[in-house]
Amino acid sequence: MDIPVKKWYEAVQTRYSQQKYMTKEIKPFTLKSLEKKIAELNQIYPEVRIEIFKKSIKEILPALQGKYGNFTDSPAFMAFVINDNGEHRWTKMGYIGEAVILEATALGLGTCWVGARYVPERSRVKLNLKRGERLVAVSPIGYSSENYNLTRHFISKLFPHRDRKNVRELCPDGYDPDWPGWVKNAIKLGSYAPSRLNRQPWRFYYGDKKLVVDCKGEPSAYKRLECGIALLHLEIGALDGGTSGKIEFGGLGLASFVSES
Ligand SMILES: Cc1cc2nc3c(=O)[nH]c(=O)nc-3n(C[C@H](O)[C@H](O)[C@H](O)COP(=O)(O)O)c2cc1C
């Protein structure tokens, strides 16, 4: 994936899950930019795709079993759709999905991953899923109306991601302060990834220029998705830290970033 490093690095710092939205329409130019990016990202892996619906998130939420939180109406939502076949599809969904979330954040839009089992009969929106496709998550998009946003922004500048696990806990085989700068930067950004109830299931391992992400315990579908989210954060952190390289799925863990410099 072609990563706009500075833009998404900044978006990682400013992104927060937003549940409250203004009903104000999204500016046409903003929506167009986001749709253009989605069209690009939808080309990367045939197993996953994202689509924007200009309907309120509340139209789809009744069909999601196990979601949590109190959402207000939003001018639009994004649907995260997975094919029933294909290797690493859940991890790829997290990786591509978070790219769209960060792009939306950079465009000034609020987002919130909502991942839960979809019961089509309860949906008020027709999703036009193709045979073998399944909705695995959604996110509202729109302008956030959470009035503590400014305070949050201020606090997050002072205490960036104070509610995340310590990097030492996230590296069960040890965290070495003498690791290259890009590795430490990648792990820091990886730790800022969003996850259900902020459980942070990812764990990181480094050796031989390879930064591996795996999950704690059994790799359930949603843990795989969350590790895919963390993988994108790792890649942004690694590139921002001055290395070049590529990501790989599978291998020692669920996925890795491999440095080539
Ligand atoms: C797969 C997934 C599902 C989530 N589901 C919900 C949800 O149903 N309701 C909600 O309010 N937040 C949901 N979240 C958002 C998390 O609660 C949030 O990411 C976490 O608490 C960390 O906060 P932050 O995103 O503001 O950094 C979900 C996040 C992920 C990654």
Automatic annotation (TrEMBL):
<keyword id="KW-0288">FMN</keyword>
<dbReference type="GO" id="GO:0016491">
    <property type="term" value="F:oxidoreductase activity"/>
</dbReference>
<dbReference type="Pfam" id="PF14512">
    <property type="entry name" value="TM1586_NiRdase"/>
</dbReference>
<dbReference type="InterPro" id="IPR050627">
    <property type="entry name" value="Nitroreductase/BluB"/>
</dbReference>
<feature type="domain" description="Putative nitroreductase TM1586">
    <location>
        <begin position="9"/>
        <end position="238"/>
    </location>
</feature>
<keyword id="KW-0560">Oxidoreductase</keyword>
<dbReference type="InterPro" id="IPR000415">
    <property type="entry name" value="Nitroreductase-like"/>
</dbReference>
<keyword id="KW-0285">Flavoprotein</keyword>
<dbReference type="InterPro" id="IPR029478">
    <property type="entry name" value="TM1586_NiRdase"/>
</dbReference>
<protein>
    <submittedName>
        <fullName>Putative nitroreductase</fullName>
    </submittedName>
</protein>
